[in-house]
Amino acid sequence: MHQASARQSSHTSNAITHPHWLPICQRSDLVSNSGVCALWGDTSSEKTDYLAKPERKGIALFFLPGQERQLYAVDNWDPIAQAGIISRGIIAELDGELTIASPLYKHHFRLEDGVCMEDGNIQLATYPLAFNGNTVYIGCDK
Amino acid sequence: MTEKTNKQKLVVIGNGMVGHHFLEQLAEKNESTGFIVTVFCAENRPAYDRVHLSEYFAGCSAEDLAMGHIEQYRQWGFELELNNPIASIDREKQTVTTQTGSLHRYDQLVLATGSYPFVPPIPGHQHERCFVYRTIEDLNAIRTAASNAQSGVVVGGGLLGLEAANALKTLGLDAHVVEFAPGLMSTQLDEGGSNLLQKKIETLGVTVHTSRATELITDADGQLRMQFKGGDELITDMIVFSAGIRPQDELAKSSGLQVGERGGIVIDNRCRTSDPNIFAIGECALYEGQIFGLVAPGYSMARTTVAQLTGMETFFNGADMSTKLKLLGVQVGSIGDAHGRSEGAAAITFVDEQSGVYKRMITDATGQKLLGAVLVGDTGDYDTLLQYHLNDIDLPEHPEQLILPSTDGAESLLGASALPTNATVCSCYNVSKGQILDVVHGGCHTLAEVKDATKASTGCGGCAALLKDIVDSELAALGMEVNNHLCTHFPYSRQELFHIIQVEEIKTFDDLLQKHGSGKGCEVCKPTAASIFASLWNEHILEQAHVGLQDTNDTFMANMQKNGSYSVVPRIPGGEITPEKLIVIGDVAKRYNLYTKITGGQRIDLFGARLEQLPEIWRELIDAGFETGHAYGKSLRTVKSCVGSTWCRFGVQDSVSMALRVENRYKGLRSPHKIKMAVSGCTRECAEAQSKDVGVIATEKGWNLFVAGNGGMRPRHADLFATDLDDETLIRYIDRFLMFYVRTADKLQRTSVWLESLDGGLDYLREVIIDDKLGICTELEIQMERVVDSYQCEWKSAINDPEKLKRFRQFVNSNESDDNIIFVKERGQPRPATIEEIIETAESA
């Protein structure tokens, strides 16, 4: 995946205006109050290590049953730690914001928009996520 | 690869402490200015801490001393050329040429070439057993030579010479100092101070020869003979020259820059040389006829230059050369005009020959201002006197009070509150009292946070006490109580929370949050609660209700490494393992291509396992009879042991059997922090039990129990808690001790810190554990018994539970593995590829 060379993710607009919904996994794959990682993109294409097309990547999915908003999806790649580990962090409330504390260096990324609380210049891409029956759907720009 | 750019090219020659500080400061501002920076360094390693160079002989590694890191420079976008000295500067063409002949253009040039040790031109000084004391390589050479030497001589009795003498002593040599002047440290100390220092150093076993000029060094049957003016001689095995420094100004001279009569590159108050495109900073620079051989003024020049380059107006106006240090264990301080050479200077002197203390203040003619001071044997007043001197504060009516021992126990300290706001507190990083107050008001409420925000006291550390004083008094003034709340979600300490959970028998985090907390919880309170639940109820950590509470290491029962792969540590109780099991570990490591390393705790760590491999690896290890080693948890790690009376001719008890018994009893116990233990079979202490949370040492009559030791970041010797115990009493005391700690310690508090913060300390702990003063010992034992009885190998339970195994999928929707985890081979084993290696592979693919 090409992420390895992305030294710093730049501020990109995260707004997905007209989502195009596609299935990504099953409800039973999610773990309550925690994260899992799903492979997203052209999963059929041949593996092309570290030069993979940018549309093939790990996405961290978080499930918070009973909360106002139950589902969040952000990039699994931690640009600060340079490893794909966001899904393995702890969901933490910081200054009233829901964040994910990345396991290696404990940076907090706001679940809602992926912005790093310790360094506002760093932002993870975020995606809309929704249940459709027992299937989990992700929204993308086609 | 060059691109056309109108960015300015900045070349820096030299990468010592000052050169590094310059780059550090520039990096902070370079976003906007965008210089293209190339750094040339003559040494083969990036900048390191020369101020603490001597600690290299006291067990400090080159890595510990490192200040600049290649990776850090890369992140800043600066190019660092190690081992690549510059041969010449062409000021006309604005280029520099390296010794290997490559040419580099510059728009602006910074000379940070430092100094070189001055070696007096005594015939014979080039002998192979003559050394200088400046670089890590010099120290390596000295160490090698000292390994077959009995005695060593340092030529030079200044600051660095005495440090070198101490180094020779540390290396086990009979050390001598030869000084040309009539007294030691003549730059900083007056005669009285110098004499006292010499006396003190001589009682420590260093021989001092003053007023000695060496005229000739010759070979004498494999030793060196030093001949002095006047006919005396000294025979020694090696010589270290430490007779001062000379500015490294060769490049400046050869390119026609203006240099001082006795060397040094002339600079103005902008740190510019006689060529407006060239700056000089640090020990190579000469400002108003003076070379500044300390790090703080060099840093100040570095900051001035960065300011000039980024269009700010900051000036260098000379620097204070006051210094406080400990030489061979003797405290020495020198402030300002120590010799009282100023017009009309008056001195106040205090001498206590009994206790070896000499203090002298130099005031102006009116007795109002402090011009200088000398302190030997006791530098307790240094910080106060320095503040009077630096900030021009009026002296009290009876200035002698400042250095006289107080008869009524009153402190004559110039308290933090008396300092003016603009007073400089940290001269290394130029931090004023005002800046410190600002960050305290801005939300830094611990010493660590203040240090981090201002860098104060992270240089030489001389202002640490004053800094703490200022922070503490400001917090008090703000009416702040240091609260012990776990985090914003629970207004309780860990101990209070433990009692709440125990008394109300709370089993889940949701329940706890609802009844006693607020908000949604965070990465502090979740793992803490999980640890308390485990200590009390010992349910499996991967039960549905606890999954979201664990740190990643607990969640996946393995230790996450920097690239997102994991390491695996099977339990090897007491460090005892059969050949068959050793072979299994080797087999598994080979099959899964794991890096293997023996740990400090007598176990084997297997690195580089991918998330999805963990269950397979553990299935194989468990089938071979292994259990989890809990290396991932805040829990008992390992019980180290020697081989004891079974094999050892000195052993008085069977330490291995005891280590096995202890480890198998407490394995799986969750605690506020990790717990390490050891059992030694005799007083020779080969298992190093006195550096453990619980240490057991065999005696002729039984076991001595030591508690609350700590290796790691803040080492602490364990305290002897009880002596000559029989097996059963030993176990009973450990049960009580551990459970009392688990119940009452703060979050992430090791036993060492816990004991130090316990009211009444060790005596109180003995009353609780041995005399049952609180009447809780039975309860503590029952609670420990419950934990011991409910032990399960977490991995064994996990691999037999399909629901728990689901957690170990890299992707929930694919069987692929993470192709960002890439290994390369080093010394025949895998290691994580660096970012550069990954990019290289990608580009050549």
TrEMBL record, chain A:
SUPFAM superfamilies: ISP domain (SSF50022)
Residue stretches spanning the membrane: none
Keyword vocabulary terms for this entry: Nitrate assimilation, Oxidoreductase
Domain Rieske-like [2Fe-2S] stretches: 21-138
UniProt superkingdom: Bacteria
Name the UniProt record assigns to this protein: Nitrite reductase small subunit NirD
Record organism: Microbulbifer variabilis
From TrEMBL, chain B:
Pathway connected to this protein: Nitrogen metabolism; nitrate reduction (assimilation)
Pfam family, one: Rubredoxin_C
Domain Nitrite/Sulfite reductase ferredoxin-like per the UniProt entry, residue ranges: 561-622
InterPro entries referenced in this protein's UniProt entry, alphabetically: BFD-like_2Fe2S-bd_dom (IPR007419), BFD-like_2Fe2S-bd_dom_sf (IPR041854), FAD/NAD-bd_sf (IPR036188), FAD/NAD-binding_dom (IPR023753), FAD/NAD-linked_Rdtase_dimer_sf (IPR016156), NasD-like (IPR052034), NiRdtase/SiRdtase_haem-b_fer (IPR005117), Nit/Sulf_reduc_fer-like_dom_sf (IPR036136)
Cofactor(s) named in the record: [2Fe-2S] cluster; siroheme; [4Fe-4S] cluster; FAD
NADH-rubredoxin oxidoreductase C-terminal domain location: 322-386
Domain Nitrite/sulphite reductase 4Fe-4S: 633-769
Domain FAD/NAD(P)-binding: 9-298
Limits of the BFD-like [2Fe-2S]-binding domain: 425-472
CDD domains: NirB_Fer2_BFD-like_2
Keyword tags: 2Fe-2S, 4Fe-4S, FAD, Flavoprotein, Heme, Iron, Iron-sulfur, Metal-binding, Nitrate assimilation, Oxidoreductase
Similarity-based family: Belongs to the nitrite and sulfite reductase 4Fe-4S domain family.
UniProt name for this protein: Nitrite reductase large subunit NirB
Source organism of the structure: Microbulbifer variabilis
GN (gene name): nirB
